[in-house]
Amino acid sequence: MRYLYTALLAIVLSTGPALAHHGWSGYDSDKPMNLTGTIREAGYEHPHGYVKLEVPGKTWLVVLAPPSRMENRGLPPSSLKAGKTATVVGYPNRTDPNELRAERITLDGKTTELR
Amino acid sequence: MIHDPQAAAWLVWLESSALAVAMRKWMWLYPGVEIVHITGIVALVGGAVLFDLRLLGLSRGLPVAMLARHLLPWSRVGLGLVAVSGAFMFTAHATEWAENSAFRLKMLLIIAAGLNAWAFHRWPFRSVARWDRDVPAPPRARVAAVLSIALWLSVISCGRLLAYL
To answer: CB-based contacts of A26: which residues, under 8 Å, 6+ apart?
Structure first.
């Protein structure tokens, strides 16, 4: 049994930070951010869509909503395109300094709530 | 795509496969697979835990061997459903899940739960005819039941928490 615990502990401690984090509790809602930049890459994907948003000095991975929700709220796949300018309001990830979860996104003058 | 540049080649390959792309891009495939996964959990853990509770002394009038024949095949069906649906979900974000500590712990706990079930059938369950009904199950069977409940609840917890780590 002791070997099992040691093995479990070793495996848990050996993991690096995960790349994407999904629950809202992983993001710091005390630090809302407002970013405007250029979409460099976009994914209309499960479980959450995303854009890589280039702002001066940094490129953020902005986590959006599930595709079905974005579709329902009038944000079709065709609207998320590289090269477009987007504004997002969201919260930074508590552990990954390059990731933000968006509460809303403004594209082509239209704002979509994502939560 | 959101590949980790340091990810192992087989994980990147898996994540780039047609199945993984379909999982991420088709509107209703991912949620459909999640529904299968939850249904599988119900069958697997439901059957196992109800059987464990009998081993722990609840409804002692029900014959253990008969209850095992009724419940455990459903647990095996559930295991098949969660394994296939889980593999589908894993491919969609293979590089990410492989790094996720809750996911890794979950896999280890599933192995532990499987070994526990195997050991139960290999040893205490062989003598079930002697404690089939109206008498307490032997201590080793009850230990296996407690372990089974604890392990499966931990597996469910890790499964839910991996989206929050």
So the answer is: A93, A94, A95, A101, B164, B165
Out of A19, A23, A47, the one facing B95 most closely (by C-beta) is A19
Is residue A65 situated within a structural domain?
A: yes
Question: Of B15, B16, B21, B25, which to mutate for an interface test with A (greatest number of A Cβ within 10 Å)?
Answer: B25
Interface ipTM: 0.73
Domain that holds residue A105: 20-113
Q: Do B96 and A44 touch (CB under 8 A)?
A: no
State the nearest Cα–Cα gap between B59 and chain A, in angstroms.
31
**The 3-state secondary structure of B81-121, one letter per residue:** HHHHHHHHHHHHCHHHHHHCHHHHHHHHHHHHHHHHHHHHH
Q: Please give the pLDDT value at position A99.
A: 95
Q: In this model, does residue A25 exceed pLDDT 80?
A: yes
Residues of chain B with pLDDT under 50: none
* Overall number of domains in chain A: 1
Write down the pLDDT at residue A23: 78
Give the number of beta-carbon pairs within 8 Å between A and B: 63
Residues B80, B82, B83: CA angle, nearest 5 degrees: 65
Q: How much is the pLDDT for B163?
A: 87
> How far away is chain B from the Cα of A41, in angstroms, using its nearest Cα?
9
The answer as to whether A6 is a domain residue is no
Domain membership flag for residue A13: no
Task: Indicate yes or no: CB of A46 within 8 angstroms of CB of B95.
Answer: no
What mean pLDDT do residues A75-93 have? Answer: 95
